[in-house]
Design brief:
signal; Rossmann fold; BMP_lipoprotein; 2 domains; about 35% helix; membrane
Length: about 350
């Protein structure tokens, strides 16, 4: 199996703004609710010799969160689907769409098929390059705006998972004061905030909620700046919050450090960060909003191996098990019954979780 992390292929980071794709749901085909895979699958003939290209968002493999979840899906696929090769590349903060396009174009022209783009920053580049290579299958995580006959949109109900996290934060807070740290203030991360606020207020209508975004588009360093994350969370703890949730990618490490210093609690995102974060901060992570990017990436690669790739939106929601909360460490054992009650009410439709802030 290939284990090496590949660097940039040809283009270096360029200055300029990134035009970001819309994060709201939509697309050229009706959305289908995904059913995450269970267990191992045997390799199909179409998988043999497949060369997979995977383009990470800012932070790349090793961010202990969003990108690492995608990497886990690829790592699972290598032996189970018999991939011949996997090439991994990553984005740099501040680069232009042209740089992303060129990377994707080099993968496609180099025989990599399928190609998976991790994050909505690839929206425009994926749409353009996929049109140039109609025989190559593309998938993009967290974006519904890039549409085409050979593009699969892997989407998640982040607001539903974040509702459970908001409820957990309010139930765990002794000061009736919690916080939310967002990486970049874009529609996708606002979905996390909307669900978190709704969940916290469902538990305690008068709960105080602090919100801080680390950067504003077109500046996307908020997804990979632990120092900014620590500063923002420290401010919240100093102001009286005792539980802080982050949706900030690699910046979350700083939030955990702030929680440890303040003797407070933190909540992770995307991966079960009580397992993936630095060992010295894992004890302050009460739970994480799990977003099963690994499952979505594996499902897409598996569908390619069997010739069953579908274009358009594939939605991984709470009902499908695409989002959830983690229980590592046992810190939510005392409130698990209440969280599961909320989960069932969301799944049944009794509770409709907002995906936008008011």
């Amino acid at each position: 199996m290939l284990q090496n992390r590949f660097g940039k292929l040809a283009a270096t980071a360029l200055t300029g703004s990134m035009l970001m794709g819309a994060a709201a749901c939509g697309g050229s085909e009706p959305a289908t609710t995904a059913k995450p895979s269970e267990g191992a699958s045997s390799a199909a003939p179409a998988a043999a010799g497949a060369k997979v290209g995977l383009a990470y968002d800012i932070g790349g493999r090793g961010d202990q969160s969003f990108n690492d979840a995608a990497a886990a899906g690829l790592d699972k696929a290598k032996p189970e689907l018999g991939l011949a090769e996997a090439k991994e590349i990553e984005a740099s903060n501040g680069e232009t769409e042209a740089a992303k396009e060129e990377r994707l174009r080099l993968l496609a022209s180099g025989g990599y098929n399928p190609i998976v783009a991790i994050g909505f920053a690839y929206s425009g580049p994926v749409k353009k390059v996929a049109a140039e290579f109609p025989d190559v299958k593309f998938a993009i995580v967290d974006d519904a705006a890039a549409t085409g006959a050979n593009i699969s949109n892997l989407l998640f109900a982040e607001h539903e998972g974040s509702f459970l996290i908001g409820a957990a934060a309010a139930l765990k807070s002794k000061k009736n004061h919690v916080g939310f740290v967002g990486g970049v203030e874009v529609p996708l991360i606002k979905k996390f905030e909307a669900g978190f606020v709704a969940g916290a207020k469902a538990v305690k209508a008068d709960v105080k909620i602090d919100v801080n975004y680390l950067s504003q588009p077109p500046e996307f360093s908020g997804f990979n700046d632990p120092a900014k994350g620590k500063t923002a969370a420290t401010g919240m703890f100093d102001a009286g919050a005792d539980v802080v949730y982050h949706a900030a990618g690699g910046s979350g490490g700083g939030v955990f450090e702030a929680a440890k210093a303040a003797k407070g609690l933190a909540i992770g995102v995307d991966s079960d960060q009580a397992k993936t974060a630095a060992a010295d901060v894992q004890s302050v992570i009460v739970t994480s909003m799990i977003k099963k990017v690994d499952v979505a990436v594996f499902d897409f690669l598996k569908s390619f191996s069997t010739g069953a790739v579908k274009a358009g939106p594939q939605v991984y929601d709470l009902k499908a098990g695409g989002v959830d909360y983690s229980t590592t460490g046992g810190q939510v054992d005392d409130i698990k019954a209440k969280l599961d009650e909320y989960k069932q009410k969301i799944i049944s439709g009794e509770i409709t979780v907002p995906d936008k802030t008011s």
